[in-house]
Amino acid sequence: MANRVVNSVLGQGTRVWSPVSRAVRAMSSGAGSGASPSHTYETLRVSQPRESVIHVELHRPEKRNAMNQAFWREMVVCFDRIAEDSDCRAVVVSGAGKIFTAGIDLMDMAGDVLQPEGDDAARRAWNLQRKIREYQDTFSSLERCSKPVLVAVHGACVGGGVDLVSACDIRFCSQDAWFQIKEVDIGLAADVGTLQRLPKVIGSRSLVSELAYTARKLMSDEAKSCGLVSRVFPDKDSMMEGVLDMASEISSKSPVAVQGTKINLLYSRDHSVREGLEYIATWNMSMLQTEDIMKSAQAALEKKSPKEVLYSKL
Ligand SMILES: CCC/C=C/C=C/C(=O)SCCNC(=O)CCNC(=O)[C@H](O)C(C)(C)COP(=O)(O)OP(=O)(O)OC[C@H]1O[C@@H](n2cnc3c(N)ncnc32)[C@H](O)[C@@H]1OP(=O)(O)O
């Protein structure tokens, strides 16, 4: 049933991610990797549009992909599975329907974080802190996943949407996109990653502060000029083509090199240059022993394209 729904939503040529299709692929490629991840969710649609690329689509279009409790739960499960899936080398996130996302589901929020359980203030605070950490973990799971996460934003990207995109590695948007740190307008300080990650993404604390204090909309051209997104496409279709092409390109490269790069970029973001250099020296004392280096060097000497090299799964 779920697959029938997914098939009707996805276009031709897009393969739906299901235990059966993945098992068939594993058999046909001779792969013998353990259990197949079963990606069946209420708020997400997961497919494999290109070799080694997984597409995670926020999928509550009639509610503008507002992030309800199921979403906050499912995103972690989805990304923790992807992290363990050696068939996946790059991930694309996008939104179904009119916009990318309207942020947290305001109806759900009223019944969840606004009514913490507990017999007294201390116990309510204790429980609320645990809950906030769970919300935070939803987007931290995108960083925890060592495969590069590319996000493609069209239309509105509000509140929790900015938290989400801040945790991605590469951001694209369409011309009609806009971003809004909306939390102040609903009476709270953003608490699931925007205030921590965004200043490191766009570099200007002044601009982040302005956007966070005023909740003004950041339109696509300004998002590009300030470095929030690296490319702006004329429309959603061309953006999806562009983002999938880039994900394919990344997934054709050595997963040891690509995933080691993500881990070290994130480490260096949060540490001094000296600590970052120390970390990668220790990292590469193992990873330089990969056969991928010899394969890549051989291909370069033979003037072959890197795309012709077959790298083992990681
Ligand atoms: C510990 C907590 C951590 C997380 C914090 C996160 C905080 C935030 O995300 S703050 C931001 C909250 N979001 C908003 O304030 C946005 C509200 N929505 C809108 O402004 C508009 O919907 C939007 C501009 C995004 C799109 O406008 P459009 O005209 O295209 O759609 P609508 O007709 O307004 O909506 C269509 C249906 O979707 C429902 N909906 C939209 N947004 C939400 C939402 N955030 N939560 C719940 N439901 C939402 C809307 O009610 C319509 O439903 P229906 O009436 O049943 O058709």
Automatic annotation (TrEMBL):
Keywords: Acetylation, Fatty acid metabolism, Isomerase, Lipid metabolism, Peroxisome. One of its GO terms (molecular function) is delta(3,5)-delta(2,4)-dienoyl-CoA isomerase activity. Its main location: other. It comes from the Eukaryota. It catalyses: (3E,5Z,8Z,11Z,14Z)-eicosapentaenoyl-CoA = (2E,4E,8Z,11Z,14Z)-eicosapentaenoyl-CoA; (3E,5Z)-octadienoyl-CoA = (2E,4E)-octadienoyl-CoA. One of its GO terms (cellular component) is peroxisome. It is found in: Peroxisome. Pathway: Lipid metabolism; fatty acid beta-oxidation. InterPro entries: ClpP/crotonase-like_dom_sf, Ech1-like, Enoyl-CoA_hydra/iso, Enoyl-CoA_hydra_C. GO terms for biological process: fatty acid metabolic process. Isomerization of 3-trans,5-cis-dienoyl-CoA to 2-trans,4-trans-dienoyl-CoA. This is Delta(3,5)-Delta(2,4)-dienoyl-CoA isomerase, mitochondrial. It comes from Acipenser oxyrinchus oxyrinchus.
